[in-house]
Amino acid sequence: MTDGSGRIRSQMRIAFALLKEAGWELKNKVMTNVETGEPMSFELLIYSPTTERMAIPVQKNLKRMGIEMRIRSVDTTQYIKRLRDRDFDMVSSAYTNLGYPSPNLLIMWHSGYIDSSYNRAGVNDKVVDSLTEQIAQSQQDSEQLLALGKALDRVLQWNFYLIPQWYLSSYRVAMWDKFERPETMPKYDLGVDTWWISKEKAAKLPEKRR
């Protein structure tokens, strides 16, 4: 992870060490496979200009490491087809979860969903399958759920299925000033279903906005 400043020298050193361990080295400013002599090059498949805007900084950082990442933008229909056919090197995808390990982890990581548009990382691992299955079966056991969630987190991070790209730490919300909210709000949610209309605030609004 980085601090968002763009200064990633320490992270690059770690990446170089991991690549060297995996059989890659920098030759003439190009990341090259030691055995085959092939350069490291791959394609990022996208369908949205917004994604391209976020991908360009990643592309620039990879180029500094001698790695070529080509950005390929296609229409939505082609994107979905290639996603389902697994005809891609890499895609940019959002991963959202509840504040606790939920059964949704099955469709995100279980090998049973590898032939669909879910499990986009293409994970096919018996350990991951077992952990996600146990999580789905242990929703009423908080202690077991905590242990399983931590175990799955370690396994997923160890295998480097994802490259964290960005996240937003706040909600962007536009609303009429006629709502009241409870003093204690949910930690990971806006809690819209806990809001109520304040008669006093609503009375001060123009008729057409009430």
Shape: globular
How is the quaternary structure best described? single chain
**What is the spatial order of strands in the main beta sheet?**
4-3-5
Q: How would you classify the helix and strand content by structural class?
A: alpha/beta
Give the fraction of residues assigned to helices.
Answer: 25-40%
Which percent range describes the beta-strand content? Answer: 5-15%
**Mean pLDDT metric:** 89
Number of helices: 7
Order of helices and strands: HEEEHEHEHHHEEH
Total count of strands: 7
* N-to-C span: 45 Å
The low-confidence runs, each spanning 5 or more residues with pLDDT under 50, are: none
Radius of gyration: 22 Å
Largest sheet: 3 strands, parallel
Describe the model:
The protein has seven helices and seven strands; from the N terminus they run αβββαβαβαααββα. With 210 residues, it is an alpha/beta fold. The strands form three sheets. A three-stranded parallel β-sheet has the order 4-3-5, covered by helices on one side. A two-stranded antiparallel sheet has the order 1-2. α2 links the parallel β3 (41-46) and β4 (68-73). The model has no long low-confidence stretch (mean pLDDT 89).
In short, what is this structure?
The protein has 210 residues and is α/β, with parallel strands linked by helices.
Please write out the topology.
Blueprint: H1 9-21, E1 24-27, E2 30-33, E3 41-46, H2 49-64, E4 68-73, H3 76-84, E5 90-91, H4 105-109, H5 126-137, H6 142-158, E6 179-180, E7 196-197, H7 199-204
Parallel strand pairs: 3-4, 3-5
Antiparallel strand pairs: 1-2, 6-7
Helix pairs in contact: 5-6
